[in-house]
Amino acid sequence: MQEAGAGLVVDAARAEPFASVEDYRAAVGRVREAAAAYYSGPDLAMDDAVYDALLARVAATEAARPDWKADESPTEVVGAGGGVVGDVVHSAPMLSLDNVFDEDTLRRWAVRLERILGRPAGGFTVEPKIDGLAVAARYVDGRLVQVATRGDGRAGEDVTGQARRAAGLPERLAEPVTLEVRGEVFMTDADFERANAMRTGAGEPAFAHPRSAAAGTLRAQDRTYDAPLSFFAYSVHRAEPPTVAHSDAMAELERLGVATTGGSVAGTPVCATVEEVLAAVQVLSASRGTLGFGIDGAVIKADQPADRDAAGSSSRAPRWGVAYKFPADTRMTRLLGIEVQIGRTGVITPVAVLEPVQIDGVTVTSATLHNFDDLVRRNVRPGDVVFVRRAGDVIPEVTGAKLDERPADSVPFEPPVRCPRCDGEIDRTQKRWRCTRGRACGAHESLAYYAARHSMDIEGLGGKIIDLVVAAGLVTDPADLYDLDVPTVAGLDRMGEVSATKLVAGIQASKGQPLARVLTGLGVRMTGRSMSRRLARHFGTMQALLDASVEDLQQVEGVGPERAVTIAAELVELAPVIAKLAARGVNMSEPDLPPPAVAGAPAAADGSATAVPLPLRRPDGTPMTVVVTGSVPGLTRDEGNEAVERLGGKSSGSVSKRTDLVVVGDGAGSKADKAEQLGVRILPAERFATLLAAFQAGDEAGVAEALA
Questions:
Q1: pLDDT tens digits for 659-700?
Q2: Has keyword Flavoprotein (predicted)?
């Protein structure tokens, strides 16, 4: 919770005041109790959206009836009075920030700041608001000597012992300087999973939320395990007043070895105007689910020290900064039940059925529970009030339950003994349980995936027809599709000769799809469309891929030891189906591409296919990372990504500092904005289409012109 807490002064005008002093005082008590649970860990008493709304009503009531205002009001103290106060006095108060929730209130804050300064501010920084625990870390002569929590803003607890383990908070700085670093201790998404495995392995209930997990871990003194922690700095304090911009001070901290958000995938852009700030906030919000760590908003600060000095602070919050809160991505709701889902490869997964809840603007009614071991580890039961999170486009997941609200008659969920779909045996040797019949169990799902547009693109082969051919015993795997003929299909219920002719023609036409599409359609575990294309380009033919060893597979970009082993095992399992497909004439090779240029090599005699270099390669020969957003003339979305890889690049779905090029077409959204914000090169979709055509024609001059 970076430099943010109670402040709802900006948003109070939109909230409804309480009608009675009793209701007001009860709300003050609820807010303080929730804040105490939030700041102390290891559980949450109230989700963010409810907390923010309740606190806004408290502020609105105090504005309407100042005579009711309680001495312990959460609007008057840092962190709503929830911080655990210790005996470490801060060198300067750790203030809170006022919150805003929309663009209009952010603009009003900027206008008010300009009025205070008597001129426009000299720039702003936009930082991700980390959902963690604020601390102050003191360095003397470059050595870490003490770490304290925020507490009540004036004094906090000493947590030096646990905080020393946080990645990003070094024991020694690169230079022997004396300063105080303030920032957030938090858990990344991956560390949260590891921490929960450690916690449940030690016989304790799972953490419900990464933020409470970090808070509980930071205060733990006698645990038998060391859960992972991370740290990002958001300010630096020295004995002398600051003379450099905040952005420069953060860059200096990075040089000294302290992690900041500026060095993360989120970045810390510097903006000249409030409109640029709003664009940066939108980019950050859009990338929220891809960062690998939780954020609940953006923090906007005046960058120049002179502006901060002129703006000053109230007793609780600085006037030169504000927190823009995003919609909550973790909410509480009731777990109505647990269903068992069987995937196309026979994987058996528990799925949570939820009382509908709004998360980040989306109504969520179901969420993943990952696997049955994880279900036991998280200690979640039907009837529980559970925490559900959804960040960006990430599939909603249940992270834990409020154990203090568990019904007295609740019972643990009983996993299936046999496959619920086909009554086959279940293989429980791995975390992800599987029906021993594998794809035969999930014939409908595997056939639908094989026929999908991004796979073999068999027009007309929809779910109803798949049901008919499977029920009739005509098809059990993708290869059987190619044995279907018009009379057989026409004899099925509600199928005539015309529709049967079109369907059979579509199935036969799919034989010509490239190897990458065949691999995608087969659904090899731990691969997707992009990985299937890489495998197809690297090996060229299905036989070469089948003959590849685990070591050979690891030569493909993005294939590590674990993935290589899984792919090799999957190919062995799929070999009979692959053989049947090949026997029926399905293409098992990837089309040749124009060869890369060789120094001194002559052009082709007829001039039609000269050797050209792969245009989307860096000078060192490695693939450029390219993002395609919006439509490219003549190409589908999948074909646009395929084109990137045909041109020697690596397609990506998100824009970061490591992105080399962003192709922008009609309908492009936040990715284009983020590319512009980060200074990543942008190529219009029309020129990308021209580049592809020139490359396929072997026109080296045309390639150069398209990239100029």
A1: 999 999 988 878 888 888 889 999 999 999 999 988 888 888
A2: no
Instruction: Give me the residues paired with residue 147 across strands.
Output: 137
Active-site annotation holder among 69, 129, 402, 671: 129
pLDDT of 569 reads 85
When the pLDDT of each residue in the chain is averaged and rounded to a whole number, the result is 85
Residue 404 pLDDT > 50, yes or no? yes
Buried b (16+ CB within 10 A) or exposed e, 680-702: beebebeebbbbbebbbebbbeb
Known binding-site residues for NAD(+) equal 48-52, 96-97, 127, 150, 184, 301, 325
Tell me how many degrees the CA angle 366-428-579 measures, rounded to the nearest 5: 95
Beta bridge partners of 183: 135, 233
CA quadruple 437, 439, 444, 447: dihedral, nearest 10:
-160
Q: Which pair of tokens denotes residue 243?
A: 């003379």
Select from 1.20.1740.10, 3.30.530.20, 1.10.150.20, 3.40.50.2300 the CATH code of 515-583: 1.10.150.20
Domain ranges of the chain: 12-81, 88-325, 330-340+348-407, 442-512, 515-583, 625-707
Binding residues: 48-52, 96-97, 127, 150, 184, 301, 325, 419, 422, 441
pTM over 0.70: no
Tell me what pLDDT residue 38 has: 59
Sign of the alpha-carbon torsion through 580, 584, 585, 590: negative
Q: In CATH, what is the architecture of 88-325? A: 2-Layer Sandwich (3.30)
Distances in Å between the Cα of 37 and the Cα atoms of 43, 194, 426 are 6, 23, 42
Active site residue 129: yes
Percentage of the chain lying above the pLDDT 70 cut: 89
Indicate if 515-583 has the same CATH topology as 442-512. yes
Type and span of the H or E element at 671: helix 670-678
| Highest mean pLDDT, choosing among 5-9, 29-33, 352-356 | 352-356
